[in-house]
Write a structure and sequence with these properties.
The protein is built from four helices and nine strands; from the N terminus they run H-H-E-E-E-E-E-H-H-E-E-E-E. With about 200 residues, the protein is of the alpha+beta class. The structure holds a DNA duplex (13 and 13 nucleotides).
Length: about 200
DNA sequence: TCGAAGATTGTCT
DNA sequence: GACAATCTTCGAG
């Protein structure tokens, strides 16, 4: 088991945190048991000047966790169907976060499979923001929690060399869609789709 | 109180 | 490849 990433880890530029979270382990503890996965894909949302960031419209009840302490979870519901999980970065008052888009199942795979449905398996268990939340049992009750203890924990995992990391535009957004703030482990079979309903 | 939009996914053609 | 599902949040009236 790697050491738990301290709060300081998140109190840096969001792009750096997004890059360094690759290879880290996201772990969830629920009454059903423990499950974890290695983070293989992230996106940075860099504050009020980022049109795609939820905080672009200012501080609201929903976005309050983004303005809080670094190293906190920000979980929100999207499209009436899915949950997405972020790690809040930067100091208080600077609303930025890193969206976890895909993980590689590490432990509790049987539990993830049960949550996702028996017909789902392999990379499809966790290769998308909504999918990994479903697999790890993450929902609104996990919002605004510290990532150092309790139900949600992020640990040091394997180290990822700089030349293993690909940087691309973010996925699934309509504003600032060309900003290169998506980070992924090159060659990982567990990353989400590379393009939105793109051809080819 | 109402209407519109959204950091997605699964299913059907 | 296209589209429906489904609901929370926010801002305007």
């Amino acid at each position: 088991m790697g050491r738990i990433l301290p709060r300081d880890f998140y109190d840096r530029d969001t792009e750096i945190v997004a890059r360094e979270l690759l290879g880290a382990v996201l772990e969830s503890n629920t009454s059903e048991g423990r499950a974890s996965g290695i983070i293989v894909e992230t996106e940075a949302y860099v504050g009020e000047h980022d049109p795609a960031c939820h905080a672009a419209a200012g501080r609201t009840r929903r976005t309050a966790p983004l303005y809080g302490r670094p190293g906190t979870s920000y979980v929100y519901f999207i499209y009436g169907v899915h949950w997405c999980i972020n790690a809040v970065t930067r100091e208080e008052g600077l609303p930025s976060a890193v969206l976890v888009r895909a993980v590689e199942p590490l432990s509790g795979i049987h539990l993830m499979q049960r949550r996702r449905g028996q017909q789902i398996h392999g990379v499809n268990l966790t290769n998308g923001p909504g999918k990994l939340c479903a697999a790890l049992g993450i929902d609104g009750t996990m919002n605004d929690l510290p990532l150092q203890k309790g139900r949600l924990v992020v640990r040091e995992g394997r180290s990822v060399a700089a030349d293993e990391i690909d940087v691309t535009p973010r996925i699934g957004i309509t504003k600032a869609a060309d900003w290169p703030l998506r980070y992924l482990i090159r060659g990982s079979r567990y990353v989400s789709r590379s393009r939105v309903t793109g051809s080819v």
